[in-house]
Design goal:
Elements (H helix, E strand, L loop, with lengths): L11 E7 L7 E6 L4 E4 L4 E5 L7 E9 L2 E9 L4 E4 L4 E5 L7 E8 L5 E7 L4 E5 L8 E5 L7 E7 L7 E6 L4 E4 L3 H22 L1
Antiparallel strand pairs: 1-2, 2-3, 3-4, 5-6, 6-7, 7-8, 9-10, 10-11, 11-12, 13-14, 14-15
Length: 202
Amino acid sequence: PQLAGTGWDSTINTMAVNWQSSSAPQVVVGLGNSAVEYYNGSSWNQLHDNSWDTYVNSMAVNWQGSSTPQVVVGLGDSAVEYYNGSSWTELHNNGWASNARQLAANWTSSGELEVVVGLTSGAVEYYNSSNTSNGGWTELQNTSWGTYVNTLAVNWQSSGAPQVVVGLGDGAVEYYNRSEEHTSELQSQFRISYAVFCLKKK
C-alpha cells in the first residue's frame, strides 16, 4: 500500500525506516523543500516545515518505540539540526559553507548525543553534546583532501572521538583512528594503494 502520495510536491532526499513486526513500519523522510515528515505506522506527522530555505541532505534517527523519534539532519547549506522528540535545536549554523553530505549519529546510554558530519568541502566534523568548547564541535579533518566526502562509516567509542572511515569523491578511502599522526600514515597508505590499483587497471 502507498504510505504517501505526491502531495508534498518535493523530492524525498533521505529516509529512515523502523520495521515493526506487528504493524506498518515507522518512517522519517527528509525532503528537498527542507520539511521533515514522520509516519508513525498509521498516519503522517510533520516534524518540520519548509522554513529552512534549503534541502535536507542527510539524516540519522533514534527510534523511541511508539513515541516520536529523535532526528538529526544535515542541510544543504551545512547547518545541522536536532529534533529531540518535541522541538528543534540548531547544533551548527551554515558557517561551514558546504553541503552536509554525510551524517551519522549516536545516542549514548548516558543521554549524550554524538554526530559525525562529512562535508562536500572534504572536511569531517565531530559533535559531542558533553563538550563545552566550540559549541561541542571538533574538526577531525580539514579541507586539504581537495574533494568531497561521499560516504562514511563510524565506530563509536565509549569515550573520546570515534573511529571514522570515509570514501571520497576522487575514489580514495581515508581512516581516522583518533590519532592525527596515525591517521596521516594510513591516509598515505590508502592513497598509494588506490594509485597502484588505478595503474594496474590501465
